[in-house]
Write a structure and sequence with these properties.
- A 6-stranded parallel sheet has the order 2-1-3-4-5-8, with helices on both faces. The protein has a two-stranded parallel ribbon with strand order 6-10. The protein has a two-stranded antiparallel sheet with strand order 7-9.
- The protein is an alpha/beta fold.
- It is built from 8 helices and 10 strands.
Length: 234
């Protein structure tokens, strides 16, 4: 009988990457979304682990995570893995702080837990044409490849030794200017935002201002270790 695991919030690109990696390892994957929200406990019964992904820029991520944790406890799930973000404790980025608060809930849940903190996805950049970027193209980032994030999630959900661990995840450290030059495309910096005066606009402006000044560096060694890729070459 195959291991059964759940991916909560699993219908987006992150959830699909995690489910694909788990499926490649012969796991019975239960993908849940809002349709299962009111009966989440029933959906999680029999699962050895649950991967928790909140909607992007959710208005109440701690509330979302608390709901999943309560369902996981009632379903007697074996472990919980929370999809957080690199550098969650940044006062300038309110949506990062929501993830920091959610991490605290996970750590105090009473369940065996692991937290993954990926950097921005490489897949968010379309390098087949001119890149239209809302922040400084020369800012340094630790970019995460979605397939790598999915593979790392499968490792910490299915293998031992990861309870109580928090891992930042990056596949590559680079600037967008460097990535665009390698791909042979140009970069144009412009500032698309959400609806004027909206919460989304405020969060995006805060994020882009921070990126302009500091980027979001993330080390690559934790991901390489999780995926058994060996040390970086000098």
């Amino acid at each position: 009988m195959s291991t059964r695991v759940a991916v909560v919030g699993g219908h987006g690109k992150t959830g699909r990457a995690v489910a694909t990696a788990l499926g490649a390892r012969g796991v019975d994957v239960v993908v849940t979304g809002r349709a299962e929200w009111e009966n989440l406990t029933a959906a999680l019964v029999g699962c050895a682990a649950v991967y928790v992904i909140a909607p992007n820029l959710d208005v109440d991520e701690p509330g979302y995570v608390a709901h999943v944790l309560e369902a996981a406890r009632k379903a007697e799930v074996g472990r919980v893995v929370y999809h957080s973000v690199a550098s969650p404790h940044l006062p300038a980025l309110p949506h990062h702080l929501d993830k920091a608060e959610s991490e605290d809930l996970v750590r105090r849940s009473g369940l065996p837990w692991t937290i993954l903190q990926p950097g921005p996805y490489l897949q968010n950049l379309d390098l087949t044409t001119t890149v239209r970027l809302p922040y400084d193209a020369h800012a340094t980032f630790g970019f995460a490849d979605l397939a790598d994030v999915g593979a790392a999630a499968a490792v910490v959900m299915l293998e031992s030794g990861h309870a109580g661990a928090t891992y930042e995840l990056a596949s590559r450290v680079a600037t967008v200017a460097e990535l665009a030059a390698e791909a042979g495309v140009d970069v144009v910096v412009e500032r698309p935002t959400g609806r004027p005066g909206s919460r989304e606009e405020a969060l995006l402006r805060a994020m882009f201002d921070y990126y302009d000044q500091h980027g979001l560096p993330v080390g690559t060694l934790p991901l390489r270790a999780l995926l058994a890729r060996g040390p970086l070459e000098e």
